[in-house]
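Quick entry, no commentary yet.
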Amino acid sequence: PPLSPSQSPAPSVPPSPGCWHRGVSREPGALWTEPGCRSCTCQEGRVLCGPVSCSIPCSHPLPAPAGGCCPTCTGCLHEGVARAEGDVFSPSDGNCSVCVCLAGNVSCLSPECPPGSCPGPSPSDCCSCHPAKCTFRGRTYAHGARFSLDGDGCTTCVCQGGEVECSFAPCPVLDCPQHQWHLRPGQCCSSCRDTPVPTGCFLDDNGVEFPVGQLWSPGDPCELCICQADGSVSCRRTECLETCPHPIRIPGQCCPDCSAGEHALVFSNNETFPSELDPCLSCICLVR
């Protein structure tokens, strides 16, 4: 049977045309981002573009990362300084507030100052409070006061926010062996024992000890040594000033004997002659 008007077939709707943009085919309704942060869409065969719309759900977003168009809330930008998520910091105005970065938002809190005294010195004068005093062995000390334990001067104590801390006074480093350390009555630190005053001079070469003031010759008759009061040895040489044409050299004597005068007998080299002092002695003339 023929179709009634109410049963006539529905008219066909032609499909929406796509878009061709900058050499690329786009499907109808497609949405994409062009360089320069421009958002484009394909509508009825036409390309419609406009600035990218950014939704920023935080108060202190960080600038868009490289290659991105919208700021990020993973971190915070506070007073020109980038803060990571969870960072705790103090603002630069110095009002003693403490701030934290959470989900791109910066929240700051001011400190609560206790009434009256506080347990320690006030940092940066944030709180108008006074450090607590110290009570120690029945006496009261102000904050920062220093005193000696039992008045002996060997310990130093200080009052810090209601607590007393004591330490021993430092002792100097001694330059003597430990067996010479000595702690005198009433002293806090040991000192070196007094070295005994030397009673003479000890010579290492022959092991002889000379008393203070002793004179001796170390082997050369022209050299004379004396033992000083501090244990040192002082030596001087004797200069022979008297000269004569025929000096007589006596063994063990520094200077030659010139008592023979001008009329002394002259002997040649290797000549022997009897001694005038002792007839039992025979002398020989040796030219040196």
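second:
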Amino acid sequence: VIRPEPCCVCGSRIRFGKTAIKCCQCQLLLHTKCREQCPSLCTPRPHHHVRPHEGVLADFAPSTPPLVPMLVVQCVTEVETRGLTETGLYRVPGAEQLVREWKRKLLRAGGALPALSSVSDIHVVCGVLKDFLRGLKEPLVTFSLHPAFLRAADIPDDVASDTALRHVVSKLPPANRDTLAFLMLHLLKVSHSPDCKMDVFNLSRVFGPTLVGHSSANPTPLTIMEDTPRQCKVVARLLSLPPIFWRGFVETEQENLVPM
């Protein structure tokens, strides 16, 4: 190992200079000592993937549109099924250990994902979704388009800002664009639920750092401080766009968004 990477079985990092085992089909990486606990079957990836625990969004997306990772579909479906009456959805944290365990289960599952209905606390499901999005190598809006999203949200005229945002969204990689659209439609449902008490302002504060992030993987403390309010502003602006705009990206193949 040259660059320290997490073991897909135990989750702890495999340190520099240590020997590891990697599957040539699914790229699963693990400690040599964890070999016995490794799943016996793997799912070969239809296109290039990095590691099951880390990569850009396209590495987790299906091969047919809409290009939304199954983990995202599974979590959103579960939240919409039984979470829209829960106060503080996405703001109240789930148990950290359970979030890590379920994220690992879902990422290791390959084809058919384990049912999230067995997770009693819906906040854990919310935590898995947020942790997955935070763990990507670059944020959903991508490093290269990050400045354009901030500039578009800063335009004082609402109509001009919306037009600029639509243009930048259309420039996203297909998987990022489809997943962003899917998430925006979901968050709009959450914001409209009186029981959740999570309006657009609250949701933008939660998802600003997660979806927008920064323009590089290693931002300076000053950049972090300056970006935080602008991240929230971007998400709030995105949530102000009409649902019909977002549906245009995901409704063409809606039947493919049924969780497996």
